Amino acid sequence: MGSLATPPRPASYDKKVALVLQGGGALGSYQAGVFEALSISDYPPDWVAGISIGAVNAAIIAGNPPERRVARPRQFWEGITASPAWWPAWLGDAPGAGWGDHRQAAVAAALLFGQPGFFAPRPPIEWLFDPAPTSLYDTAALKGTLESLVDFDRINAREVRFSVGERHDFMAPVAFDPVRKTPTGAFQVKWQSIPTALGYFATAMGQGENQNDVVMWSSSEVQEMGHALMDYLPPNEVQRLIKERIVMNPQTSECSVPAGIFKGEGAMFNFIAFGDELNVVHPPRPKDPKQIWEQQYAVKVRLKSTGMTMLSERSMDVGRGPASRDTGSEPSEGRAAGSQAPRVPSATDAVKEGVNILRGIFGR
Fold it and tell me: Is the distance from CB of 48 to CB of 62 less than 8 angstroms?
């Protein structure tokens, strides 16, 4: 990077320099650039805090010696954004070829195959048995990536101070009960209550009656697309939206997606639990306005918890009870003798249905 027009650090400056990194997925790549700029200034951070992807970056920074604190985050982001070795180069590098905009191909690759060293789609077989996964992607690869890039003994030695408050650390994860269809054909989605949630909001996206139609639904009781709400909202805004019947109150533990909105099953259901906000100033502002006050740092922590599931009950029921296989015994109650048991959907069926949904979304 080039030189920065920052004022020189006075010799008398003895305050700590804190770097607070928020969540936001791909936003984390920009955070690495911010740290690089600070590292060559007169104000290198000696206290790093973060949440979500910001906590990943903070751990990489705090878990390396000063001479590697710029190179390691770069290595992390270059590694997890690389295309798979077998991915055709023309799909990711040549605008106008094949998929058109190469960014669309990159999105499709991440959706279908994940990101190397970060996350990967769960195998279809995991959806066929209880307990069903609570997420579409497995992040086990991230553990190995961090272990190769981070010296956790260095973090524990507190050479660079790295801290997140216990109460304002991650919220409880979103946990869904198995999705069920009501007699009218609606999808009933239930979730476990999150103690620190201030409110909930949900959206769903899937294929319409026509193959090229993408249909959006939200849990709002009034007309509201809602995709702008699938991120952190300040507590006062959450309360306002609850009063306007856009956001569900924190006592809510289920919602229903009406029948006929999506074609078949397999629409994607996205969910967010809005959390609290913490603002810390050190030292605290004195009550007496005439008293001299020199602020050393200020920290803002914002909390949310998100989850995703599929609007489908078929994979949830596979393998349950004796009706899932033919044992040659007497017919079970509710099924006449000589009739055939309903066909159990296979993993191939689930994959085919997912491919059809993607074709509808990408217009293929």
Answer: yes
Q: Which helix H or strand E contains 238, and what residues bound it?
A: helix 235-243
**For 208-285, where are the E strands, in sequence order?**
214-218, 254-257, 267-282
Greatest CA separation for the chain: 91
- Three-state DSSP at 256 gives strand
pTM of the predicted model as reported, rounded to 2 decimal places: 0.49
Question: What string of DSSP letters covers 52-101?
Answer: THHHHHHHHHHTS-GGGTTHHHHHHHHHHTSPPTTS-HHHHH-TTBTTBS
3-state DSSP call for residue 161? Answer: strand
Expressed in angstroms, the distance from the first to the final Cα of the chain is 42
Q: Model confidence over 310-362: pLDDT tens digits?
A: 888 753 432 233 333 333 333 333 333 344 444 444 444 544 555 454 444 44
Phi then psi for 259, rounded to 5 degrees?
A: -70, 150
Place of tokens 């973090």: 155
Q: Are strands 120-121 and 137-138 parallel, antiparallel or unpaired?
A: antiparallel
288-314: per-residue pLDDT in tens? 888 888 877 677 788 899 999 988 875
